[in-house]
Amino acid sequence: MNQTKVNQLMKDERFEGFLLVKSSEKRMNKNNEPYLDITLSDNTGDINAKVWNCDDTPPPPGKVLKVRGSVTEYNKRLQFKIDRYREPGEQDEYDLSALVAAAPRPSDEMFEEIQAVIEGMENPVVKAITTEMVRRAGEKLHYYPAAQSMHHAERSGLLHHLTDMIRVAQAILPCYPYLDGDLLLAGIILHDLGKLTEMVSDTLGNVSEYSKEGLLLGHLVTGVAEVRDAAKALGYPADEEYALLLEHMIISHHGVPEYGSPRKPSFPEAEVLSQLDDLDAKLNEMQTALKRTRQGEFSDRVFALDRRVYHPRYFNEEDAFSDDIAPNPAEDEGDRGFDADSAYQRLL
Questions:
Q1: pTM of full prediction above 0.85
Q2: Backbone φ and ψ of 82, nearest 5°
Q3: Beta bridge partners of 262
């Protein structure tokens, strides 16, 4: 599949190719005329698209479309004006893995990394609760993103977020020998598992909406409830110290009430979890912005960071970003850690 990547599109450029629908809805303009508002993506990013004067049923998220149109600009952001679109036919050939944003490592590899961390835990209470929570997460953990549109909004993004945090924690634990390593690592593994019920995602990592439970409670509250239920099922009393510590780490990991935490971190491991979560999220947001920005230029405003990001003129760009730099559109994307053929069958 040889087509321009989304993060390489430029104003006034014509585009024809296959893209994945991330979201879509029918809207009315000021003249009360219908149009489709669609977010299209490939594995390098997404772009807002419009089909003007169109009364069609919006294509569902996760659907692949062949589109033809031109790149425009609105409010200093690129936008795609679709002239024609259709679903792929039997004669069409495309690589689904080139359209799905995915974590840089295979989900099985990241899951095994988490399992190895749990196996190495010495605290029996922490180990048992973490094991039970990961068991309850099940297959969802392999493909769920960490967010709908913020950091790690990609297939297996949640595992990507957790394993990167684990690696940073393992690097700094020797610097602070008074930290309880089992407690910190368990808090990292558990802190965002509530997102598995907060969001509704397909197996390609596309979040279509937030669940009723997610909208009414949020993943901090549901995460605490799940840990409490798991501890009870394992036979621990309601006042079990380590279960309570894990619950606090979950409900405080956003740091302050303005970001959703009703309690600030109240012990060292909870503070480290909160800081690592914030660091990993911000770095991922920056990295995503830099992929779309040329060296020596500033990105568009990144909503989650409330700022624009500068792309330095790195001495060695390849070393600075490794495999995360968007490849030449003529290059083969290769496998991104999942079976594209089977994923496409699930999509259908």
A1: no
A2: -85, 120
A3: none
- Per-residue confidence (pLDDT) for residue 208, from 0 to 100: 81
Confidence grade of residue 254 (pLDDT, cut at 50, 70, 90): very high
The answer to whether the beta carbons of residues 22 and 41 sit under 8 Å apart is: yes
Tokens of 226: 């799940």
Residue 116: exposed, middle, or buried by beta-carbon count in 10 A (0-12, 13-18, 19+)?
exposed
Residue 317: pLDDT over 80: no
Dist. CA 295–CA 313, nearest whole Å: 5
Q: Is 47 helix (H, G, I), strand (E, B) or coil?
A: strand
What is the rounded distance in angstroms from the CA atom of residue 193 to the CA atom of residue 173? 23
Q: Which residue has the tokens 């960071």?
A: 305
Percent helix, strand and coil across the chain, each to the nearest 5: 40, 20, 40
Closest C-alpha to 213, from 204, 203, 222: 222
Q: What percent of the chain has pLDDT over 70?
A: 91
Q: pLDDT digit string (tens) for 65-92?
A: 999 999 999 887 899 999 999 999 888 8
Closest CA to 285 of 309, 312, 319, 261: 309
Contact status, residue 94 vs residue 56, Cβ threshold 8 Å: no
CA angle 195, 198, 199 (to 5 degrees): 90
- pLDDT, greater one: 337 or 250: 250
Domains of the chain (ranges; CATH) run 6-98 (2.40.50.140), 107-285 (1.10.3210)
pLDDT given at position 95: 86
N-to-C CA span, the chain: 20
